[in-house]
């Protein structure tokens, strides 16, 4: 993990001897309601003041940096300025180069294992148990699921272009399109794309926008490794045991020794050193 990002441990390591799996807390939800009521009341009061005395409403943008944090990873809104690109390596007209860039998109780190008490505190339903430490539950971070979907859609188009048989069924591709559609609606991104005056109908040329830091999100996923690799899904999905897919614990993670003993390997064996599977393996 880049040292640039330091993440607080998600739970104290047992120092308070609290229950291991507390019920989802009622407190925060109640306090959120109270907070919302307070915000609503303040807003109504300002509207009344504004109507009566022409008082300017608070400029909420001033609070955005301090207040608007993402729900699970605590990412800051408007953390980085990102330029919109009309062309990028993912639109390279050279199909050979472009295919390899899309192939290099890796979303394996998006599978994370987090302490169950933390997950419950966040109001999450428990995911599947992390096999190497059952006090943790496994999740797939949505941004990485969306990358997975984009990559599968690209691959489907690539296979169509090359007249190759489709690796993914239509239902998987449709699911992926629908998830991306839902992402778009959920983020309801209201950034206004600058409309250029020329005939090309391109918008947002040379424009920047304010984003959360994907690098920081990625660093967070690396800090809570789910040790999972999709690999060649055609092959892996067909295996009776899915455990080998979950063996890629990085050096330094507390679970690596558990993985080693499960697979009867010595302390010099590190599954994370295995080459990452590529669409073009065997070419
Ligand atoms: C992926 O696995 C399938 C099924 O085993 C195999 O036919 C295919 O060649 C593999 N693809 C690559 C690129 O390794």
Write a structural description.
By secondary structure, the protein is mainly alpha-helical. The chain is built from nine helices and four strands, in the order ααβαβαβααβααα. The strands form two sheets. A two-stranded antiparallel ribbon has the order 1-4. It has a two-stranded antiparallel sheet with strand order 2-3. Helix 5 crosses helix 6. The chain is globular. It binds 2-acetamido-2-deoxy-beta-D-glucopyranose. Pfam families: UstYa. Belongs to the ustYa family.
What features would you highlight for this structure?
membrane, 39% helix, mainly alpha, 283 residues, Phenylalanine aminomutase (L-beta-phenylalanine forming), binds 2-acetamido-2-deoxy-beta-D-glucopyranose, transmembrane helix, two-stranded antiparallel sheet
Question: Can you give the helix content as a percent range?
Answer: 25-40%
Q: How confident overall, as mean pLDDT?
A: 87
Strand fraction: 5-15%
Order of helices and strands: HHEHEHEHHEHHH
* Structural class label: mainly alpha
Computed Rg: 23 Å
Q: Biggest β-sheet, characterized?
A: 2 strands, antiparallel
Alpha-carbon distance between the termini?
Answer: 32 Å
Strand numbers in spatial order across the main sheet: 1-4
List the helices and strands and how they pair.
Layout (H helix, E strand, L loop, with lengths): L26 H27 L7 H7 L12 E4 L11 H10 L6 E5 H6 L14 E5 L1 H21 L7 H18 L20 E4 L2 H10 L9 H4 L19 H7 L21
Antiparallel strand pairs: 1-4, 2-3
InterPro entries: UstYa-like
Pfam families: UstYa
Organism: Lachnellula arida
């Amino acid at each position: 993990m880049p040292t640039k990002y330091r993440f607080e441990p998600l739970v104290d390591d047992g120092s308070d001897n609290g229950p291991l799996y507390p019920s989802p807390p009622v407190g925060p939800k109640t306090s959120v309601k109270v907070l919302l009521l307070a915000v609503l009341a303040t807003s109504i009061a300002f509207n009344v003041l504004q109507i009566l005395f022409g008082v300017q409403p608070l400029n909420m943008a001033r609070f955005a940096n301090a207040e608007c944090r993402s729900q699970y990873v605590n990412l800051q809104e408007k953390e980085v300025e990102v330029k919109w690109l009309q062309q990028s390596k993912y639109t390279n007209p050279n199909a050979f180069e472009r295919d390899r860039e899309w192939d290099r998109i890796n979303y394996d780190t998006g599978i994370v294992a987090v302490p169950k008490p933390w997950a419950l505190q966040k109001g999450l339903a428990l995911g599947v148990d992390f096999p190497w430490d059952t006090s943790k539950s496994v999740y797939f971070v949505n941004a990485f699921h969306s990358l997975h979907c984009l990559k599968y859609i690209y691959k489907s188009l690539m296979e169509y272009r090359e007249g190759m048989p489709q690796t993914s069924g239509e239902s998987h591709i449709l699911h992926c399109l629908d998830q991306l559609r839902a992402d778009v609606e959920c983020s309801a991104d209201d950034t206004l794309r600058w409309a250029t005056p020329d005939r090309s109908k391109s918008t947002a040329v040379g424009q920047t926008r304010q984003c959360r830091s994907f690098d920081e999100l990625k660093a967070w996923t690396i800090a809570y490794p789910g040790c999972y690799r999709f690999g060649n899904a055609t092959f892996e999905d067909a295996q009776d045991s899915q455990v080998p897919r979950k063996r890629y614990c990085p050096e330094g993670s507390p679970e690596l020794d558990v993985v080693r003993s499960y697979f009867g390997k010595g302390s010099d064996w590190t599954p994370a050193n295995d080459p990452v599977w590529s669409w073009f393996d065997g070419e």
